[in-house]
Amino acid sequence: MSTLPSPAARTLAGPDTPFAVVDVDRTRRNIARLRARADRLGVALRPHVKTAKSLDAAALLHDGAPGPVTVSTLAEAEAFAGAGYRDITYAVGIEPRKLPRVIALLRRGVTLRVLLDSTEQATFVAAAAREAGVALPAQIEIDCDGHRGGLKPDAPGLIGIGRVLHDAGCLDGVLTHAGESYFRPTAAERRAAARDERDAAVAAAGRLRAAGLPVPVVSVGSTPTAHAADDLTGVTELRAGTYVFFDLVMAGLGVCGLADLALSVVVTVIGHRPEYGWIVTDGGWMAMSRDRGTAAQPRDQGYGLVTDLSGTLIPGLVMTAASQEHGTLTARDGAVLPELPIGTRLRVLPNHACATAAQHHGYHVVDGARGTAAEPVIEAYWPRVYGW
Amino acid sequence: MSTLPSPAARTLAGPDTPFAVVDVDRTRRNIARLRARADRLGVALRPHVKTAKSLDAAALLHDGAPGPVTVSTLAEAEAFAGAGYRDITYAVGIEPRKLPRVIALLRRGVTLRVLLDSTEQATFVAAAAREAGVALPAQIEIDCDGHRGGLKPDAPGLIGIGRVLHDAGCLDGVLTHAGESYFRPTAAERRAAARDERDAAVAAAGRLRAAGLPVPVVSVGSTPTAHAADDLTGVTELRAGTYVFFDLVMAGLGVCGLADLALSVVVTVIGHRPEYGWIVTDGGWMAMSRDRGTAAQPRDQGYGLVTDLSGTLIPGLVMTAASQEHGTLTARDGAVLPELPIGTRLRVLPNHACATAAQHHGYHVVDGARGTAAEPVIEAYWPRVYGW
Fold first, then answer.
1. Cβ neighbours around B108 below 10 Å, total
2. Sorting pLDDT into bands at 50, 70 and 90, what band is B341?
3. Residue of A nearest to B182 (CA)
4. Which residues touch B223 (CB under 8 Å, ≥6 apart)?
5. ipTM for the complex?
6. B-chain residues within 8 Å CB-CB of A101?
7. Residue A91 is inside which H or E element, if any?
8. Is B274 touching A (CB cutoff 8 A)?
9. pLDDT for B351 beyond 60
10. I need a surface site. Which of A222, A322, B149, B375 has the fewest CB within 10 A?
């Protein structure tokens, strides 16, 4: 764990608000839960570090060892390589001008796996690998649910791409991501999404193998499907990111409970508008992000649910509006607006952990396992990796 | 202007994407336009630096001199004080634990004006001023349109708050912000909002003065009302922030044209999904923010309109979806999806400049006055102030 920024700020009552807090006990439990699932399913786990973007948080993923990870930027790949990680998948489609940084990492001994879904990309990746004289592992992105990138498993171009990569020693595997599973409200639907995800990846790998092309890696995953999958036969590895912290979107789906949410933002009451039923805080969208993922769910949680500083939910209190540095809290479900004087500190649980975490440069870390204190002790400060 | 981060990255084709770009020529023109309006209206201008959060951008506000500014965080106040700014309004309601940093700035000779709207705040501000033995100028926030904080101009408590402040030598003025003007789609409605904003501030100042309390500052402003006001009699200063860069929300209101938008994000094409009509880029919500302000306007601009690298709009091309590091571009209005090979660089114009700028650590600066080049030259790098 990194050291604290200021020895004076020893509890959540200390640092100036707003700031992000991680409960390391909840984080550990979330990590252990998915690791147990992956073990049971017989697949390797390659967590996506784009949510926390923290070397300290990542140290909990593989018992302190630099195990396999997924990244969303080359800045993350470089930071993790610098900390000794040697097996990294960069899960965003590659473009030519990012190749020099990829090759520099490969030359440092990092197995950096890139992603692509076109002959165009396979051709320049193969050419770069030949020119640099390095092994440049590339995975073919497969589209399992029409969410974003990738080739359909039965796409005519799949074998040709595989061959271009194989001929240059680059063909590393196939990868898919069930992004639509974030919009599947029942466990049965997410289980079906996990099967579709598996089937798409396994079918694509099967076609490539039938054409004589070896496919070492068959990678699937998203937080909802990773927690729903019942059979991953044919899959070699599972990816997920948000599960490390979880958030209100995941709780709304039922993938986790509110007591699993490890990320929150500490804010301070700065005003009252009794005529409108508002409490005003110093935590606006700059601290929470503009993400309103729960707006698409049956239970819209506004910009977030509110707890006291100890982490205990305040029933019926919701952050319903945000400007840059102002948050508005209101009561719902017949709750009475609590009396919270100016200066009262609260914690807000976010819609989307990835987006809220990205508004901060690091996390003040508390340990819920030490019990519920009115002013929890800050155990550490974890800086975030930033930029691209 | 700060120096460039890398001498190799001399045009917008250089730095790795995504990154934020500011057109300094458009910025200068936007600044000059509002300055001319303020001069014509006979009020001082106190720009809000929360949008750009850049000392380099702020140097254009007052011809290079450190003139009066508004800030949204104490981190901004400290950064601007460090650069010689001596007249700063911190326009977010004050709470007790932020006072030590306020007093430290006052002791450095900075006139830092704080904001409040309750007797509770007035009392602890007055006590802190007395205890520290410093002048602690405080302004009373007035609510002109039910948008956020403040007292209604006729609120019974106004005079009492004014007296508590006055007795401690703290009463500096009144301040209001017509936040609802962002939702006024016609110039006539915004002109009316500007009158309401003025009337609320002037009425509150009048009541305080009638009670024998001096009110030196009568401060109003928002970007929409600042550009609509026709008579600011009784007002001493005008505030606005977004106007420095403008954005699609402001263009949608008609406060500016698309050719005034000074902020954009450079992204690269990383894939194609012809079966869905999508072009996929490496610019997702991490680069654009989750702000979808135009969703509430008649013309929803998705996550942004798209230009080529020179800044020329590509008709009908819109960024319609975002995940963390992926953007999806689609064609509308009968436009044909252009052929943009992998590696093509584009610029995306944001919904909300404040939110998109906040996703970046600085700006690569180009000068549109030098003409439209296929690969505009980067003139400078402007770092942003961050944190709280």
1. 12
2. very high
3. A323
4. B240, B241, B242, B243, B246, B250, B255
5. 0.96
6. 16
7. strand A87-93
8. no
9. yes
10. B375
Listed by start position, the domains of chain A span 48-240, 254-383
pTM beyond 0.95: yes
CA distance B332 to B299: 12
pLDDT bin (cut points 50, 70, 90) of residue B312 is very high
B window 195-224, beta carbon within 8 A of A: none
Angle at the Cα of A193 (from A190 to A199), degrees rounded to 5?
Answer: 145
Contacts of A340 (CB under 8 A, 6+ apart): A269, A279, A346
- The one-character DSSP state at A189 is H
Q: Where are the alpha helices (DSSP H) in chain B?
A: 24-41, 55-58, 74-82, 99-107, 119-132, 158-167, 187-210, 223-226, 248-253, 285-288, 353-357
**CA gap A43, A119 in Å, rounded:** 29
A361 closest CB neighbour out of B143, B285, B387: B387
Instruction: For A74, list phi and psi in degrees, rounded to 5.
Output: -70, -25
Q: Given an 8 Å threshold on Cβ–Cβ distance, is B95 in contact with A286?
A: no
B269 has a chain A CB within 8 A of its CB:
yes
* Residue B40: CA count within 13 A, CB half-sphere: 12
In B, minimum Cα distance to A73 occurs at: B325
What pLDDT shows up at residue B1? Answer: 42
Tokens of A265: 């933002």
Put simply, the answer to whether A148 touches B323 (Cβ < 8 Å) is yes
- CB of A125 closer than 8 Å to CB of A150: no
Alpha carbon separation from B325 to A348, B173, B279 (Å, rounded)? 25, 45, 14
Q: Is A341 on the interface with B (CB under 8 A)?
A: yes
Q: CATH 2.70.70.10: does it fit domain A254-383?
A: no
Map residue A105 onto helix, strand or coil.
helix
Q: Is the bond preceding residue A274 a cis peptide, omega within 30 degrees? A: no
Point out the residue among A18, A95, A101 whose CB comes nearest to the CB of B343.
A95
By the CB < 8 Å criterion, does B123 face chain A?
Answer: no
Burial degree of B156 (CB within 10 A; 0-12, 13-18, 19+): exposed
Mean pLDDT by 10 residues, chain A (388 residues): 56 97 98 98 98 98 95 98 98 98 98 98 98 97 95 97 98 97 95 98 98 98 97 98 98 98 98 96 98 97 98 97 98 95 98 98 96 93 97
Dump pLDDT digits (tens) for B126-162.
999 999 999 999 999 999 999 999 999 999 999 999 9
Neighbours of A111 (CB within 10 A): 16
Q: Please report, for residues B25, B35, B53, the alpha-carbon distance to residue B368 in angstroms, rounded to integers and kept in the order given.
A: 5, 20, 21
Q: Do A97 and B286 touch (CB under 8 A)?
A: no
pLDDT at A6: 58
Nearest CB to A120 within list B50, B291, B341 = B341
CATH topology of domain B48-240: TIM Barrel (3.20.20)
Contact check, Cβ <8 Å, B388/A19: yes
Please give the sequence-ordered ranges of beta strands (E in DSSP) within chain B, or none if there are none.
Answer: 19-23, 44-45, 69-71, 87-93, 111-116, 138-142, 171-176, 217-220, 237-238, 263-273, 278-281, 304-308, 313-323, 326-331, 345-349, 362-366, 380-383
Q: Do B359 and A361 touch (CB under 8 A)?
A: no
The answer to whether residue B108 neighbours chain A at the CB level (below 8 Å) is no
Q: Is A188 helix (H, G, I), strand (E, B) or coil?
A: helix
Taking the Cβ of residue A96 and every Cβ of chain B, the question of whether any pair is shorter than 8 Å is answered with yes
- As given in the structure block, the two tokens for residue B261 are 């938008």
Contacts of A245 in chain B (CB under 8 A): none
Optimal mutation site among B273, B345, B361, interface A, most CBs of chain A within 10 A: B273
pLDDT at B174 over 80: yes
Q: Which residue of B has its CA nearest to A17?
A: B388
Q: In this complex, do A95 and B18 lie within 8 Å of one another by their Cβ atoms?
A: no
**What mean pLDDT is predicted for residues B221-248?**
98
294-323 of A, contacting B, C-beta below 8 A: 323
